[in-house]
Amino acid sequence: MPGTDLKITPQLSIPESELVERFVRASGAGGQNINKVSTAVELRFDIAQSPSLPEALRARLLGKRDRRLTDEGVIVIDAQRFRTQDRNRQDARERLAAFIATGLSVPKSRIATKPTRASKTRRLEGKRARGDVKRGRSGRHSWD
């Protein structure tokens, strides 16, 4: 897998040179192995400075409110689900590809609409009926 580009779509791929991987010791349970072997992967990708991303996609990705994005526009993905370094590396790359793929779809802009006359009437009728129910609960009855 080393030396291969990260393929997002058939038209879009990220060169290996733009990805920065760091191998660290994983946290959590795992016994002696976890204390000796650096199996966790920290994958960094600079979205803001990447020449391989189209400008519109870059803007959508940077506009997301994701806790993995730094203020400088770098996404940091930590992968430590698996016991092997290779599998964690693959997992981090898959998660980066999924994150970038979410920015590929352009959100539809909302078209402002007004409520219809019938829906306004139904709403007001409901309010009136509810008010009648509440008015009926008050203690102004003459129980002869």
Automatic annotation (TrEMBL):
Domain Prokaryotic-type class I peptide chain release factors: 25-41
Region (Disordered): 110-144
Enzyme type, top EC level: hydrolase
Keywords noted in UniProt: Hydrolase
GO molecular function term, any single one: peptidyl-tRNA hydrolase activity
Biological-process GO terms, alphabetical: rescue of stalled ribosome
InterPro entries cross-referenced by the UniProt entry: Pep_chain_release_fac_I (IPR000352)
Enzyme Commission (EC) number: 3.1.1.29
Compositionally biased tracts (Basic and acidic residues): 122-144
NCBIfam families: PRK09256.1
Name of this chain's protein: Alternative ribosome rescue aminoacyl-tRNA hydrolase ArfB
Organism this protein belongs to: Ralstonia mojiangensis
